């Protein structure tokens, strides 16, 4: 007898994600709840409002809040601008909570940019050079080096780009997933526009 886990594959999860725009964990849960039935999983996500979150991303976000967080030791501080579509949503407790959670996460995880494409290219190239040397030193064959390095660069992005980082409070989901869930709840597009993080002694 097949178990629930055997009724769908990672490709099914990815396909559902592409169709609905929901996060990986939401898609996996939806397939688990529906025993691998993709159409039912789509309905499950739509019923929860998660599937609509991605489709809102093209909508203009001209409202929002600037949130801040100072760590209890007074040595780390964060300001973050999070945008939504209307002032009404910006004033809701759900949105304020999200802004606070993102500011706290930035303080703890120290991202360098909001998304992958905003990570400074010189920083990416520096890491790439280090990865190439590491892989060569490990004795891997030349034809595998670029593929391994590409994987390491992707992992690097997950470490430093805010929306790809594992959320510090619940590492099974990313900050991007957290934002999508909030977007589904309030019914508006939500975007992190920018942030600054200060740490004592750092430039």
Please name the defining characteristics of this protein.
single chain; 50% helix; 3 strands; alpha+beta; disordered N terminus; Tetrahydropterin Synthase, Chain A; Helicase, Ruva Protein, domain 3; three-stranded antiparallel β-sheet; 8 helices; 203 residues; 13% strand; 3 domains; GTP Cyclohydrolase I, Chain A, domain 1
Structural description of this entry:
It is a single chain. This protein is of the alpha+beta class and 203 residues long. The protein has three domains: 4-52, Helicase, Ruva Protein, domain 3 (Orthogonal Bundle); 56-115 and 161-199, Elongation factor Ts, dimerisation domain (Tetrahydropterin Synthase, Chain A, 2-Layer Sandwich); 120-159, GTP Cyclohydrolase I, Chain A, domain 1. Helices cover 50% and strands 13% of the residues. It has eight helices and three strands. The chain has helices at 10-20, 24-33, 38-48, 87-90, 93-109, 121-137, 142-160, 175-186; strands spanning 63-70, 76-84, 191-199. It has a three-stranded antiparallel sheet with strand order 1-2-3. Strand 1 and strand 2 form a beta hairpin. The N and C termini lie far apart (59 Å). Mean pLDDT is 86; it is low at 1-5.
